[in-house]
Write the structure tokens for this entry.
Amino acid sequence: FPPRLINVIRRRVPPHHVERVVLEAGLYDPRTAHALGLVDEIAADPLAVARAHLDRLAANPRPAFSATKRQLRGDSLPMSDAQARWFHDDLVPAWVAPEVKALLTARLTKR
């Protein structure tokens, strides 16, 4: 996974589920995704729930909200030069290997 993405996963997915989620690389049904901490809730009308949530967030003063959000997420986004080199030199080639592409294609066409 790209370093920034793995940092977000480590922050968002409960620690006892991180390895399963990352190493299993599965596609999960909504209930399993919720149990693993990948989604916050399951709703009959997800669009309405999302809009209501965004409306609540938008009601906050923008400068304070933005600063607080940056403070909360600040350490999950930076990538060091060493991480960037490792990502480009080692990880990308591994993820674009023919066997990975074949596996992803097979999993995605099952649905």
About this structure: The chain is about 70% helix and 0% strand.
